[in-house]
Amino acid sequence: MGALWCKQIDRLKTVIAEKTLLREMQERCGSGYLGSNWHPRDRKNWMSSLDPKKARINMIVWPGTHSSATNKIGIEMITRPFAQCQSLSVYQQLVCGADPGKENRVADALSRIPEPTVFAISTVQPDMVEALKGFYNLVEGKSLTTKLLRTGRFKQINGLVIEGNRVFVPEYNKALYGRSVPDFNPYIPGSSDTPSIDFSLQELGRLRVLLKNNLKRAQQRMTSLANAHRIDKTFSVGDMVYLRLKDYRQHTVSFRKSKKLAKRFYGPFKILERIGQIYQRKLSHFLSSFSLSLTHSKGSPPRARVLDIRVEETGKVCHGILSTYGVDVVIEDVKRFISETKSEIIILKIRTEAGRMDPPGLEKYVWEQLYELLIRQNDNVFEKTITEIILPRRVICVWKPHRLPKLKHKSPFWGSSYLRDNWIDTDLPATKFESNMKYLSQQLPVMARRYFYRVENTVTPQADNPVVCVKAVTNRIHGYGRLFIAQCFQRNCVNCLQIFSIHFIAEDFFDACVGLTQARLEGEA
To answer: Among 83, 122, 181, 521, which lies 20 to 30 A Cα-Cα from 498?
Structure first.
């Protein structure tokens, strides 16, 4: 018994050490990369925004889920935590968004600054007030004052523009400060003959670089946190949307004694016209227009494009010894999503679970249900653009049975050799991280191969470990998707990354893959 406890304690120390390694790597190297700040305006149809006429299949970085249809597996709160790898249904993984959570306006604003810049470290000057008054007496200052006063939020007192109890200070302006923005040229070591001055100027230069890097790292983290709760919504005429009324202030639709229990959204309503960010809705008994900030799409932002389904001989989806609903539920979710989008392509992998028999008739059933949607097995597909292979074929179905014969060329199903990975069974995050990086670097670039390669940003519970719940274990590596992509840039293997999958997929992970795709299309990655 004592040896067992010692083993578990050592195991726990190893897990903590590896989590520390990843955290320190992220703090040291950052998780920013080319395209990391790009977010699709319409996530549900993000492939359409990539210019389908130019986006080739092998240039897309596909966000995916592992053990996709396990949201209702086993018995809730009893066996489900040991096998559940996704809390959403297949349809929800494709189209459903996350709860935005509480708004952090400071992080939101700072995360939108394109590049942090350090101009100088300064103190408040006594003549600042007089300089502001002088600026507001100039033509440029008077024009700015007029615009501010029209908003109703500002007022002019003693030559200054005031908002509440704060003085409004315009952006850096030569008219205000009497000089242009200072340009700091880097000091060249050895330019000064005085050793003390030379040393001081070098130290100042290093301090400036350190401050800039710290600001950039803080901004990247703020961007990552803000983007996790940020949704860019764009609607078109004819779309159905729900309308949100401001709590405790607008009661024109529903009257309830308990305002706390009132509905959050009303509708759906049909959009009749769009004017900027203002939409006209089909509604007669109260206000006829509404702002984008008060809407909620009837179909929310998407998440995954690669699905991984395990089945047993009965035709049910399973994970290990536990099973859930039938594969027909998955097929219906896929068909529903395809019917609601225009240019989205899905990679659907269906495989027989290890130790189980192949389900009889499954291949025929999938063929009958997805007949018009299946993209036939063909090596030339990788070089084609989205426009060239769709209409209406938009599903690449990879079928991996145990004993059934291998699939033939130009079959409606793709063989398992077209979707490869190098999975290792471990619950150690840094070990899995480096293993993923090692095997990825050994692959051919995406432009030179004729198969999909998947990297799984996951770790697996181990039977000899007291922590066996999937979510608790996979959280050890869950938040390091952007770090992995950033490291791919640094280790020169980003051109090999193609499918990136995860347990419990999140919007930030989805956006990370889409941003890298955009960078590839623009020739930056």
So the answer is: 83
